[in-house]
Amino acid sequence: MGRLNDLLTRLAKIKDDPNVWAQAVHFLIGYSVVLTAQYHWYGGLVASVIWAAIATVIEAWYDPRYEGDPFFNGGLIDLTSYIAGILGALGSIYL
Ligand SMILES: [Ca+2]
Predict the structure, then answer these.
(1) Predicted local distance difference test score (pLDDT) of residue 35
(2) For residue 36, what are the contacts with CB-CB under 8 A and spacing of at least 6?
(3) How far is the CA of 38 from the centre of ligand 1 (A)?
(4) Ligand 1: distance of its center to the CA of 69 in Å?
(5) How far, in Å, is the centroid of ligand 1 from the Cα of 26?
(6) In whole angstroms, how large is the CA radius of gyration of the chain?
(7) Residue 17, by phi and psi: left (phi above 0), alpha (psi -120 to 50) or beta?
(8) How far is the CA of 67 from the centre of ligand 1 (A)?
(9) 26 CB-near residues (< 8 Å, 6+ apart)
(10) Single pTM value for the model
């Protein structure tokens, strides 16, 4: 019971971490952009490439320059979350 309580306590704390929410949102954006494109014009694969390029520009150039969020201190994690969402959507479409 102690271990279960420890696990539940740890899980409950995750929701208080803003980084977890930020990564979840980046993932969902990547996921929903690709699925939306696929739904409307069968362009999931094309949208994946375009969105991955846009996300790279956002995280490597825009955020460091205009939001003070360095690429190697947060941006890379954001980009990874976008890519994970894109891959998740491609998995939903093609697997
Ligand atoms: Ca960012």
Answers:
(1) 95
(2) 47
(3) 25
(4) 6
(5) 9
(6) 16
(7) beta
(8) 8
(9) 78, 81, 82, 85
(10) 0.83
The 3-state DSSP composition of the chain as helix, strand, coil percent (nearest 5) reads 90, 0, 10
Asked whether residue 31 carries a pLDDT value surpassing 90, the answer given is: yes
According to the model, what pLDDT value does residue 11 have? 80
What residues does each domain of the chain span? 18-94
Residue 1 above 80 pLDDT? no
AA letter at 39: Y
pLDDT tens-digit series, residues 54-90: 999 999 999 999 998 889 888 999 999 999 999 999 9
- Residue 16 Cα to ligand 1 midpoint, Å, equals 19
What separation in Å is there between the alpha carbon of 66 and the centre of ligand 1? Answer: 10
Ligand 1 centre from 6 Cα, in Å?
A: 32
